[in-house]
Write a structure and sequence with these properties.
Blueprint: H1 3-18, E1 22-25, H2 32-43, E2 48-51, H3 55-69, E3 73-77, H4 81-84, H5 87-96, E4 100-106, E5 132-135, H6 145-161, E6 167-173, E7 200-201, E8 210-211, E9 218-222, H7 229-239, E10 243-245, H8 261-264, H9 268-273, E11 278-282, H10 289-297, E12 301-304, E13 320-322, E14 325-326, H11 335-357, H12 363-373, E15 378-382, H13 386-394, E16 401-405, H14 415-425, E17 430-435, H15 436-441, E18 457-463, H16 479-487, H17 494-500, E19 505-507, H18 514-518, E20 523-529, H19 532-554
Parallel strand pairs: 1-2, 1-3, 3-4, 4-6, 5-6, 7-13, 8-14, 9-10, 9-11, 11-12, 12-13, 15-16, 15-17, 17-18, 18-20, 19-20
Keywords: Magnesium, Manganese, Menaquinone biosynthesis, Metal-binding, Thiamine pyrophosphate, Transferase
Domain Thiamine pyrophosphate enzyme TPP-binding: 403-518
Pathway: Quinol/quinone metabolism; 1,4-dihydroxy-2-naphthoate biosynthesis; 1,4-dihydroxy-2-naphthoate from chorismate: step 2/7; Quinol/quinone metabolism; menaquinone biosynthesis
Length: 555
């Protein structure tokens, strides 16, 4: 099966699984894969297909169908001015709140801006008239495409209905061949779930609550930006579920919270024995690849999102999206939770031994000890790259601190200033854990005018003289170019820089000296010098020790 046929087959099938009953087609060449898929669905009795020769008339026909039924209608056309002729109906749908799913066929990127026939700029063609618009991208014959296509369509369907009905736009690029080639093979099954849409979006009706089926084999995952955390942690605890919280999810507290899920989920034997029946996600997870793999394998993945116009689904595994979820209390055997907690304690103990035996100041131990030693009521601001990942892997559950990080876009910029702002708004003591590049990137954040308020903020800078996270990525194997283009070495005198801004400075000489180093008042900087290569080795030792301890437990 060629990629164009595969993409069109899946897009149409997912629209039908979402509940589409009518589609309107204005014929053309580049849209042939979609036209053939719709025709096949009509022959099977799955859809009512309406064909019109004029795109403007076709789009208003779809508008009328959707306006009367209240159900999204698909509009399909070829590339070029055909897509532009949909615009008046899209505007009307936007202004009157009518749900439409507009699929405009397009040329692939290599033909755009070349003078190729019937090629115009169709990306975000309808501007603000579309509730949501995306360029689907050219289909490829590789695993993972089907999940992408199906989740994309179910997201589009949901956004056409909620929070306010209106038009959404999928710009679909096709390379030739555009018609079936007779070969039915593909690298992965094209089928979706027979029960319906890939992701079911629960409409925002007053008082609507999604009730999770009663099960002991559930998991609560908490990521950045989570809301109503205490409520859902309490519900998960009563249901006997483990809580897998990223540090900035601020749900890593209590008896059900784990420390070492990153390591546990990296052991295939553990994963095989601990497959959850349902995973409920709060906020946006994204720090741990093993955790994302758990979401990908979940039988039922429910995403709790206050805003149904956008929701986090980084591995496109969400089966349901809702604004409110009820986790039922399940009485009986608590072996599920005990198994998770026992393995977590074993893995965390193995990692602690590695950190405690490592000489000098190390980045993971610094993160562990800092999070554990802060006084109650403190705020800890973390850089969005390596420091937050260190916290994710080694931070023990505790109460009484608030962890903040710029994980929205996970950028390096503005972190000193963000930490200062957060400290000024926080009512207790504040601390920050930054890498040297993040610190240098926003060193101007230390410039405070003589009449400006001073934050009570201790900034701990991990200085490994470069970009430490790259040493843990595959790029590190490229020994020749690595240091120059990834390691980004720097030799800035941090003490001189800090003192030039009139800010107190301390150097952390030994891991045990951390409590003394961070004590004080006002804005101050603590430098902890580490070695990037040694840090990469240490992370490897942590992983090996944790995995071995878990395997021994399971043996």
């Amino acid at each position: 099966m060629n990629p164009a046929t595969a993409l069109a087959t899946v897009l149409v099938d997912e629209l039908l699984r979402c509940g589409m009953t009518d589609a309107v087609l204005a014929p053309g060449s580049r849209s042939a894969p979609l036209a053939l898929a719709l025709h096949a669905a009509e022959v099977e009795g799955r859809v009512r297909l309406h064909v019109r020769i004029d795109e403007r008339s076709a789009s208003f026909l779809g508008l009328g169908l959707a306006k009367r039924s209240g159900r999204p209608v698909a509009l399909v056309c070829t590339s070029g001015t055909a897509a532009a002729n949909f615009h008046p109906a899209v505007i009307e749908a936007h202004e009157s709140g009518v749900p439409l799913v507009v699929l405009t066929a397009d040329r692939p990127p290599e033909l755009r801006d070349t003078g190729a026939n019937q090629t115009i700029d169709q990306v975000k063609l309808y501007g603000t008239a579309a509730r949501w618009s995306t360029d689907v991208g050219v289909p490829e014959n590789r695993p993972g495409m089907v999940a992408y296509w199906r989740s994309l369509v179910s997201r589009a369907w949901g956004l056409a209905l909620a929070p306010v009905p209106g038009p959404v736009h999928l710009n679909v690029a096709f390379r030739e061949p555009l018609i079936p080639d007779g070969d039915e093979s593909w690298c992965e099954p094209l089928d979706g779930d027979a029960s319906g849409a890939w992701t079911k979006v629960r409409a925002a009706t007053p008082g609507s609550v999604l009730h999770v089926p009663p099960t002991r084999r559930g998991v609560l995952v908490v990521g950045d930006g989570a809301t109503n955390v205490k409520r859902y942690v309490a519900a998960a605890s009563m249901a006997g579920w483990p809580v897998l919280s990223e540090p900035n999810g601020n749900a890593r507290y209590g008896d059900h919270a784990l420390t070492s899920h990153h390591f546990l989920l990296g052991v295939p034997e553990f994963v095989e024995r601990h497959r959850p029946e349902v995973v409920v996600t709060l906020g946006k997870p994204g720090l741990s690849r093993p955790l994302l793999a758990l979401l990908r394998r979940a039988e039922e993945h429910i995403v709790l999102s206050p805003d149904l116009s956008r929701w986090p689904d980084p591995v496109r595994s969400a089966t349901q999206v809702a604004q409110d979820v009820e986790i039922p209390v399940v009485s009986g055997d608590d072996a599920w939770l005990k198994s998770w907690r026992t393995a977590d304690q074993v893995a965390a103990g193995a990692v602690d031994r590695v950190l405690d035996e490592a000489p000098g100041v190390t980045e993971p131990r610094l993160a562990r000890d800092l999070a554990a030693g802060l006084p109650g009521g403190s705020m800890l601001f973390s850089a969005a790259s390596m420091p937050i990942r260190d916290l994710d892997q080694v931070m023990r559950p505790r109460r009484g601190i608030r962890i903040v990080a710029n994980r929205g876009a996970a950028g390096i910029d503005g972190l000193v200033s963000t930490a200062v702002g957060a400290a000024l708004a926080h009512s207790g003591r504040s601390y920050a854990l930054l890498g040297d590049l993040a610190f240098l990137h926003d060193q101007n954040g230390l410039v405070l005018g003589p009449r400006e308020r001073r934050p009570d903020l201790a900034i701990v800078v991990v200085n490994n003289r470069g970009g430490g996270i790259f040493s843990l990525l595959p790029q590190a194997a490229l020994r020749d170019p690595f240091e120059r283009v990834f390691g980004t070495p720097q030799d800035v005198d941090l003490e001189g820089l800090v003192r030039a801004h009139g800010v107190p400075y301390r150097r952390l000489e030994a891991a045990a000296d951390l409590p003394k180093a961070i004590v004080g008042e006002g804005l101050r900087v603590v430098e902890a010098r580490t070695d990037r290569e040694a840090n990469a080795v240490l992370h490897g030792e942590m992983r090996v020790a944790a995995h071995a301890a878990v395997r021994d437990l399971l043996a």
